[in-house]
Design goal:
The complex is a heterotetramer, with two copies of chain A (332 residues), one copy of chain B (292 residues) and one copy of chain C (506 residues).
Chain A: H1 4-7, H2 9-38, H3 45-54, H4 56-70, H5 78-96, H6 101-129, H7 133-151, E1 157-158, H8 162-168, H9 170-173, E2 175-176, E3 179-180, H10 181-199, H11 201-211, H12 213-218, H13 223-249, E4 251-252, H14 260-270, H15 282-301, H16 310-328
Antiparallel strand pairs in A: 1-4, 2-3
Helix pairs in contact in A: 2-15, 2-16, 4-10, 4-11, 4-13, 4-14, 4-15, 5-6, 5-7, 5-13, 6-7, 6-13, 10-11, 11-13, 14-15, 15-16
Chain B: E1 5-12, H1 17-36, E2 40-47, H2 50-62, E3 67-70, H3 75-87, E4 91-95, E5 107-110, H4 113-127, E6 130-137, H5 142-155, E7 159-167, H6 172-185, E8 191-193, H7 197-210, E9 217-219, H8 225-232, E10 241-242, H9 248-261, E11 268-271, E12 276-277
Parallel strand pairs in B: 1-2, 1-3, 3-4, 4-5, 5-11, 6-7, 6-8, 8-9
Antiparallel strand pairs in B: 10-12
Chain C: E1 5-14, E2 17-27, E3 32-37, H1 43-50, E4 58-63, E5 66-68, H2 73-78, E6 81-84, H3 96-100, E7 107-108, E8 111-112, H4 114-127, H5 143-156, E9 161-165, H6 173-188, E10 192-196, H7 200-206, E11 209-214, E12 217-223, H8 229-237, E13 256-265, E14 269-277, E15 281-286, H9 292-299, E16 306-311, E17 314-316, H10 321-326, E18 329-332, H11 336-340, H12 347-352, E19 360-361, E20 364-365, H13 367-380, H14 397-409, E21 415-419, H15 427-442, E22 446-450, H16 454-460, E23 463-468, E24 471-476, H17 483-491, H18 495-502
Parallel strand pairs in C: 3-10, 3-11, 6-9, 9-10, 15-22, 15-23, 18-21, 21-22
Antiparallel strand pairs in C: 1-2, 1-4, 4-5, 7-8, 11-12, 13-14, 13-16, 16-17, 19-20, 23-24
The chains are: A mainly alpha (332), B alpha/beta (292), C alpha/beta (506).
The complex binds adenosine-5'-triphosphate (ATP) (2 copies), beta-D-ribopyranose and magnesium ion (2 copies).
Chain lengths: 332, 292, 506, 332
């Protein structure tokens, strides 16, 4: 009996760890089985591709949120930031006016610049003002949202040049070897995010900061820089999400991105990242975003829930999905 | 022999009074139509924002629908997603907030947002002639903007002046607060345009509390049954209302179903003009059993 | 005499790792029973089992001869068994009095009676020889003060068995002496005391019997008569421990590497000045609260400070620890749990955290280099871990200290400031750390040792600067190093009087 | 010479603590001065009474949130819970039908019972399911909201008996010696809250739980009971808020209580309670709720902000208010 003591130990623990990381996937699978039972159309390739494609915006934003949250922060402004970025991007495209690649590239650049700047603003106020991120980003959420309303004068900001729209369309609707572009975008963002979080000193510093700020400080981690950078990364992710979003609906409105912050945070938490910081699971986050979209999809595909009660069923499913996850790694 | 038809209905979620009414009518009408036309299946889906509505359209098409009845969250955003559905050969019925590209729709059941603002504005110009009014607008959206700008156009040149306006989000509580503050801020207000009956109710409560006598009347809109009743009863404070019935969803669904089950193909535009409800015609607009 | 608490054949495994095997121990009323052993031997684990914090994997407990299982620490407390943890377990946001009475508040008319609790807190702390303000939040206390609060909390409930897990590690000798008074009083009241310490002289002074553990096994239980510290050390370590302190290396040069002039850390330190030479081991002594920690945190940029710091003839000012590290100065915090290690992360991540740049290839961290460094650290610093996948928080207390040392040494600093280097470290490891510090000095590095252990300062340092009340009270040269000279500077009075003051009989 | 051994400086500390507790008040005063400068009407008694009266709902709910948050929890469902409670209360009143005190009393009892039950549900799922409170209450937020919409069948739930309404009206519009009833209600709730949080063992346990759960457990604090109770208290506070809310407009709609959770949490944080738990400041919370309402009031009273930009200015003011607070206790 004793000989097993040391030898089996690493495997066993690995296994445990893996269960935690795996549990969002298991919840997703359970959900998919439920979906298939409710409506056979659920499992068609086209439906599944649709669902995953749609989850791209939130998934990309949530990758950024994983950085912020695992460093112990929070960003409530992402939805408004997305609206503002989309608005300014469209205005840039409209003012440039041409329907060519370079116009598009400039517009995209502008989008990323705007969202990165918004992230920077969040980061600086939080680090230098030393105010709870909750309050700061609640404040900037109002600010960014209002700016869109103001830019749109209460109405809509729409891409005017329809040729440009056609040129831009494939970024949402196109595919590469059958894989829709948004899916590729979000896989790439997640892969880069994972690389940064798990393989660079910066990523290590993010986790250290979220685990224990004092220890990080005493270890020479440049706290302020790291914290500000997490918000900039969040901003850039919002920018990328907008790049994929704009070709889909072609306009920005005062209600664009409403409640995306809640969805992004939910995706992160479902994915296994703790709100208190110190843990970050990029792939879990991505699965979390897909879960949210699958739940919404099942709601549309199912036909026995009164429309008034959809929200209730959706809420219940999310709680149940978390219970499934819990029971998967109960052992720990 | 029975004909199998599936109609998908996509409307905004029941987030406040009017949309709640719309969902109610959609669900009721669905049941009614399915009973009326054996073989017909109606799937009603609601969405809380433009992007989700685009998703819902995808998902409805996945269920192979023959016709789509859609009340777009927002004209600009939903134009392309509806176009995608159209490409699959689906019959398209658009309600209320039109699409940017009218060629997409086969049937259009129009609500009249510009008219909604214009008629109210005209009433103020005609009745009040002279005076200071405050405006409570809805949620920042295109249709809100259409209503308010047309209202302002309609009072242009008259002696009626908008001295203040704020968003109150089609919400009673917000309207109550904004109105309280308007009353603190302005010593004399001659009348109030609340652009929606939910908001008008909050406004009335605030006025009652402040015991202010200067305000001659409040005009809401959309024909909530309580308000229509007050018009009918000759309430001085609520002299008129402007229609904007959530039941236009029902109309659109009926027309769409008829397209499949009656001989005459239904195409074209059905305008439900915004109408001024006055004491005289109020009983035609009073439906005590509707939830709205 | 009948035993009050008896453990029979206790084994404990965490997952597949067995950390205690077949330990038996019996505890008699009115005895002080010391448990000693190397870091990681399983002392704390055993204490946790005896006090209901952990269930044993095998074996049984007997209270007054009756077999018993505790559902948890609260249950054990109800049976009169309390444990003073090695780590600080207090709610940081509550005040001292609130912590003392947490879960057993005194009530009057349904409401908490803060006045009564405050008075009782004051009284108990007074008995322990300290005047800590009962209304102070625990997060604002020094570690030593927190430890005293923790002891006070344990003594508050009616008890038959009190276990102290390294209570004196963070205390100065004067405070330790008040604790021994308490322990003797407990004994005279018929209470059984379990006592863990790496300070073998203390064990000799207070214990009646001694149990030695090694690698989770029971090695011996002996009466204290005739058991000298040297023999205890041999039993613990398994080899002779004749010489604790290494030869002091020559102070190689007169070359001054660091000059600190008139530095002030607002609220803590005023006008502190000293110099540090190449190849020197400079001690810093003083009572708790003298401001040594804050002085050096100020110097390395972890607190705001002003004054002149000259490093190799250049005036410097560090904005944060990173800048100090870049200049070759590292500071190892005395608070290894709060400021030293990420308890929720594994050993590898902790080890490389401060020196990540050294593990980067291009933009990325070289995981295999980290693994190699961990292997080396485990070997060089003799970190006892039965699985290298543990989280830092799962290491035994002493091994955490070693990990912290290893982590900071990866920076290859020129000037090393170690705050309480051997706190909670076993005697064998102590010797290793001392040798390590001496070798650093021999290599020409400069080392500052802040320590509350007088013997350590005397045995290890070339010179000792003593602080009192936020100021430098004086300096003791190598030739004059003695406990008395340090204590005199630290208190301003001679030793006996200092003890009286500390005990509050001033 | 005693000070040699102990060099603590209690005086200095007292002062610090007081500054922290005072800082929300100072922020409020600064804000009021700004308000007075912007529009002299701001300082009229009627305006100030209006504003404070309006803040009653959020203040009362936020008192409950102070318990939840200082124990380390979070409740996003309060807004929906308020709507559901209001809806069920009105339905009860309508079905009883009479216009007398006992009907009213029964309705009120029903309201408190419903909201306490909602709180209990939150608490049980969180403690026994061991799921992040964020997710659980996001789920129940959807559930409670949907139930109102369903009960109202999309429309509005309105008090039908107008005599009963008149009877009930004074609970919002009445006053006692010139002090509006809602203000009295919220002062009483805050006072009781403060009494419970600061003067009972339960309150002590709440803070201990938020400060360090392990310590609380080892100290014999009944973790589960305490945690569940905080959510029940939150529920009861929502119930009380509803009692004051219903007589105002006499109805519950699908938008009743929308975003109240955000406002309540903001009030708590502005008041000086940390989101990570371990600190609870009831009076700060109450001031926080008033601050929020004052900011909104100033926005309407001022003449130079376009309605499009109200949200931006509001967001900025909240951030600035926090900066003012910070600078007040910079010393730390
Ligand atoms: N939760 C845990 N999981 C895995 N291993 C653990 C856990 N807790 C303790 N250990 C291991 O158990 C062994 C004994 O630890 P323990 O804390 O009892 O040692 P100790 O004798 O108190 O040492 P020290 O003198 O350093 O405090 C160590 O190897 C430690 O790493
Ligand atoms: N977080 C804090 N806030 C306020 N005061 C503190 C805090 N931490 C420590 N103090 C106080 O600062 C003084 C100095 O602290 P500390 O005990 O760390 O000094 P020291 O000389 O390093 O002693 P030692 O190293 O023996 O603990 C003490 O009076 C202590 O109570
Ligand atoms: O939701 C809106 C409603 O409140 C308003 O009155 O009419 C148009 C609707 O879209
Ligand atoms: Mg130990
Ligand atoms: Mg110190």
């Amino acid at each position: 009996m004793t000989e097993t003591v040391l030898r089996s130990s690493p495997e066993k623990r690995r296994f445990n760890i893996d269960m935690r990381a795996l549990s969002p996937f298991i919840a997703l699978i359970v959900l998919m089985i439920a979906g298939a039972l409710i409506n056979p159309d659920f499992l068609t390739a086209s439906n599944l591709l649709n669902v995953v494609t749609r989850s791209a915006f939130i998934a990309i934003i949530a990758v950024g949120a994983t950085f912020v949250i695992s460093s112990g922060g929070l960003d409530l402004s992402v939805g408004s930031m997305a609206a503002l970025t989309a608005g300014l991007m469209i205005l840039t495209l409209n003012s440039l006016g041409n329907a060519d690649m370079s116009t598009l590239a400039l517009g995209m650049l502008a989008a990323i610049a705007v969202s990165a700047a918004c992230g920077l603003a969040n980061g600086l106020i939080i680090t230098f003002g030393r105010i709870e991120p909750f309050i700061v980003t609640l404040g900037t959420m109002g600010i960014y949202r209002s700016l869109v309303i103001w830019l749109a004068a209460g109405g809509t900001i729409t891409m005017r040049n329809s040729d440009l729209r056609e040129l831009y369309r494939p970024v949402y609707f196109g595919d590469i070897y059958g894989v829709p572009v948004p899916i590729i975008a979000f896989l790439v963002v997640a892969a880069i995010g994972a690389l940064i979080l798990y393989r660079t000193s910066f990523g290590r510093h993010v986790i250290a900061l979220g685990s224990n700020e004092d220890v990080a400080r005493y270890s020479g981690v440049p706290i302020w820089r790291v914290r500000t950078l997490t918000y900039i990364i969040q901003g850039i992710c919002v920018g990328i999400a907008v790049l994929v979003y704009v070709p889909r609906l072609g306009s920005a409105t005062p209600t664009t991105g409403l409640l995306w912050e809640l969805q992004a945070i939910t995706a992160v938490v479902i994915g296994g990242t703790a709100l208190k910081g110190g843990v970050g699971r990029i792939w879990g986050t991505v699965v979390g975003a897909v879960i949210l979209e699958v739940v919404a999809n099942i709601m549309v595909l199912s036909n026995f829930v009164s429309e008034f009660l959809v929200g209730a069923v959706q809420g219940a499913i999310i709680i149940i999905a978390m219970l499934v996850q819990r029971s998967v790694h109960r052992g720990r | 022999q029975q004909k199998n038809v599936t109609i998908g209905v996509s409307i905004p979620a029941a987030t406040h009074g009017w949309t709640g009414g719309a969902v109610y009518h959609a669900q009721e009408t669905a049941k009614e139509l399915e009973k009326m036309y054996p073989g017909l299946k109606v799937i009603v889906k609601t969405s809380p924002d433009g992007a989700s509505q685009a998703n819902a359209l995808d998902d409805l098409t996945a269920q192979k629908i023959d016709a789509l009845v859609v009340l777009p969250f927002n004209s600009d955003e939903l134009t392309n997603p509806v176009r995608e559905v159209k490409k699959k050969g689906t019959l398209i019925t658009v309600i209320d907030r039109g699409l940017k590209d009218p060629t997409i729709q086969d049937i259009y059941v129009a609500g009249d947002n510009p008219g909604f603002g214009r008629i109210a504005g005209k009433y103020f110009a005609d009745t009040l002639k002279q005076g200071n009014i405050v405006v409570l607008r809805g949620i920042p959206t295109v249709l809100d903007e259409e209503r308010v700008s047309n209202f302002e156009k309609a009072i242009e040149g008259s002696g009626v002046k908008v001295i203040d306006k704020q968003y109150a989000n089609w919400n009673r509580d917000d309207a109550f607060k904004v109105m309280q503050d308007f009353l603190s801020k302005h010593q004399k207000i001659d009348a109030v345009w609340a652009a929606d009956d939910d908001m008008a109710l909050g406004v009335l409560e605030a006025i009652r509390q402040a015991k202010r006598e200067d305000i001659k009347f409040v005009v809401g809109g959309a024909g909530m049954k309580e308000m229509v009743k007050r018009v009918m009863d000759g309430d001085k404070m609520i002299p008129v209302n402007v229609t904007y019935p959530p039941a236009l969803v029902a109309t659109a669904m009926h027309v769409t179903a008829a397209n499949f089950y009656t001989k005459a193909p239904m195409r074209g535009t059905f305008v439900l003009n915004a109408q001024l409800i006055t004491k005289d015609n109020a009983k035609d607009h009073y439906f005590p059993n509707s939830p709205f | 005499m009948d035993s009050v608490l008896r453990a029979e054949n206790i084994s404990k495994s965490f997952g597949p790792i067995e950390v205690l095997s077949g330990i038996s121990l019996d505890l008699k009323p009115g005895e002080v029973h010391a448990v000693i052993g190397e870091n990681g031997a399983g002392k704390s684990t055993l204490m946790r089992i005896l006090s209901g914090h952990l269930p044993p994997t095998k074996g049984s407990l007997h209270l007054n001869g009756q077999p018993i299982t505790f559902s948890g620490p609260v249950d054990a407390e109800a049976h009169g068994i309390v444990l003073v943890h090695q780590e600080i377990l207090l709610a940081p946001d509550l005040t001292v009095a609130q912590n003392l009475f947490l879960g057993r508040e005194i009530r009057r008319f349904g409401f908490v009676d803060d006045k009564a609790m405050r008075e009782r807190t004051r009284a108990i702390l007074h008995e322990l020889g300290t005047n800590i303000d009962p209304d102070r939040e625990v997060s604002r206390l020094s570690i030593a003060d927190r430890q005293l609060v923790q002891i006070a909390r344990a003594l508050l409930v009616p008890h038959k068995v009190v276990a102290f897990d390294e209570p004196t590690a963070v205390l100065t000798p004067i405070e330790a002496e008040s604790l021994f008074e308490i322990i003797r009083k407990l004994r005279s009241q018929g209470v059984a005391v379990l006592y863990i310490s790496h300070r073998l002289n203390e064990v000799k002074a207070v214990a009646d019997r001694v149990t030695v553990l090694r690698d989770g096994r029971h090695i011996a239980t002996r009466g204290i008569e005739g058991l000298e510290p040297l023999e205890m050390a041999r039993l613990m370590v398994g080899r002779d421990m004749s010489k604790l302190y290494p030869e002091k290396p020559e102070t190689a040069s007169d070359q001054i590497v660091l000059t600190v002039r008139d530095i002030a850390v607002p609220g803590y330190v005023e006008n502190a000045s000293f110099t540090l030479r190449r190849g020197e081991i400079l001690g810093f002594g003083g009572l708790i609260g003298a401001g040594r920690t804050e002085l050096f945190e100020g110097i390395v940029g972890l607190r705001s400070s002003h004054g002149t710091i000259t490093l190799d003839d250049r005036n410097v000012h560090f904005g944060d620890a990173r800048e100090a590290m870049a200049a070759g100065i590292v500071y190892l915090s005395e608070d290894r749990k709060g400021k030293g290690l990420l308890l929720q992360q594994n050993l590898r991540i902790n080890l490389s955290l401060a020196a990540l740049d050294r593990f980067s290839r291009g933009s990325f961290i070289d995981g295999s280099a980290e693994e190699k460094a961990l292997d080396r650290a485990i070997k060089d610093f003799d970190i006892r871990t039965r699985s290298r996948d543990l989280l830092a928080g799962q290491l035994s207390g002493g091994n955490q200290q070693k990990l912290l040392l290893a982590k900071m040494m990866l920076l290859e600093p020129r000037i090393v400031i170690i705050d309480e280097p051997t706190r909670g470290v076993d005697i064998g490891t102590k010797e290793q750390i001392y040798r390590f510090i001496a070798s650093l000095a021999a290599e020409g590095k400069a080392v500052v040792v802040i320590s509350s252990e007088m013997q350590e300062l005397i045995g290890l340092c070339h010179r000792v600067v003593v602080m009192r009340n936020g100021r430098v009270a004086g300096e003791v040269a190598q030739a004059d190093l003695s406990e008395d000279s340090i204590v005199y500077l630290a208190t301003g009075v001679h030793e006996e009087r200092a003890a009286e003051i500390a005990a509050g009989h001033a």
